[in-house]
Amino acid sequence: MQQYESHPFFPGKTPTSRLSMTCARWCTSDSASSPTTMTSFTGSALTDTDSGRFASSLMTTQVCIVIILSQSFHIGYLKEPSRNGYGQSAMSAKSAVSSLWPKETHPELRIRLPHGSPICELPLAHTVILQTKGAVVDKEVCGKGSAIATTAMCMSLIVMLLEKQNYLHAEIHVSVHWEQGGSHLFGQLCVQEVISRLSISCPAESSVLIYSDKVIQERKESLKDEREFEKIKKKRHLDFLDILLCAKDETGAGLSDEDLRAEVDTFMFEGHDTTASGLSWVLYCLASHPEHQARCREEIKDILGSRDTIQWEDLGKMTYSTMCIKESLRLYPPVPGVSRQLSKPITFHDGRTLPEGTVTAISIYLIHRNPSVWKDPSVFDPLRFSPENVSGRHSHAFLPFAAGMRNCIGQQFAMIEMKVALALTLLRFELSPDLTNPPRKIPRIILRSKNGIHLYLKKIP
Ligand code: HEM
């Protein structure tokens, strides 16, 4: 096995094998006989080999799985960067991949990669911004500090609202920044925030790297102060970065700066864009389904009473809202697919095999819309997640956070984030969709809307 010469998300940076989890998944085989064709399967029962355990368990739900037997294009794109940072080989691989999304499925199930964009297109700063024309920030309507959600790394999502008579028109942008800064999309006001929120762009010195470095260096410096160090030792729960900074191996050596950054980058990326996407789509779903929105609001009001803040115990009582979040994650899984490289060959139930080293891509999006598992799959129906309905379904029919050993370690946190953000938003606003501008979803590493998600927010007196 040979690893990337460079980190796939952060070109110019060498990944470390264990620590940079995202890139570890994209390591590739150096076998000269790398397979180069692609096929798609609709699988059922599979043998449970170690190498294919993840794929097997998913396929028992009879879903469409795209198996990509191609190993060269990722390396290629790194070796031949084009002007925008993506290689030509990536461009050609894209058309092959897009032709492989299962065609026999319901038309709704097809995902097409947008014409002219490379398969290796890396997502990047993906953000939720509530914004109106003008620049006045109405703190009152969104609570102190204007944050409706806080991300894994304690960064706030910007909320900028301008009251327009009694009616707030807010656009929720779910955007990708291809170039450093991405300031053209959000205007000067947001640039700093956007940069700090993962502008993981292709140029080698992308801003997220600078940001991660800054966070690490500042914390390292403060830990040199003995008093600060003592304080940390007494803490019952250490912050993520403190755990990393204090970690030592058996020889007493700590993590290198590069290892530290690989960890921080992974969390920044995995923990931010995903939740931003999840939250955006759930707001869209509820805006489009006022009856479910009203039921969630009633539930939240009943739980909170006269309070306008959420407490830990409240979260467990948000039964209906949680069902709505799950239904939105089903229809719009923020991570629409995952991939694995087989460390051993795998044999399918029908005798077909895949060799070691094959990169297999599993479409979570399609799993969630499989008509043999989900009746009327494109209908938003939160009751699918009532305890009775869940008990009758395969545990892998719903996989927004993937499954197996490398599933999402932030899933509880993400659910909490989304519940809090949803509850506080619904308490303050009535949401409705902008029917003239419906979202056009496009699958990248994160599922997003090409044209943003446009909603109307009416302030609740
Ligand atoms: C709605 C929000 C989220 C969704 C849908 C989501 C989804 C996923 C999925 C599908 C994976 C597996 C990726 C793969 O197998 O290639 C994953 C991995 C991961 N997620 Fe999340 N995630 C979310 C939020 C978060 C948050 C808030 C954090 C951090 C606090 C986080 C941290 C991670 C990490 C570190 C991994 C890699 C785990 C490993 O490789 O062992 N995620 N996530």
From TrEMBL:
Cofactor requirement: heme
Name of the protein in question: Uncharacterized protein
Domain of life per record: Eukaryota
Organism (species): Pavo cristatus
One Pfam family, short name: p450
Family label: Belongs to the cytochrome P450 family.
Positions annotated to bind heme: 408
A GO molecular-function annotation: heme binding
The organism's taxonomic lineage, starting at the top: Eukaryota, Metazoa, Chordata, Craniata, Vertebrata
Alphabetically ordered keywords of this record: Heme, Iron, Metal-binding
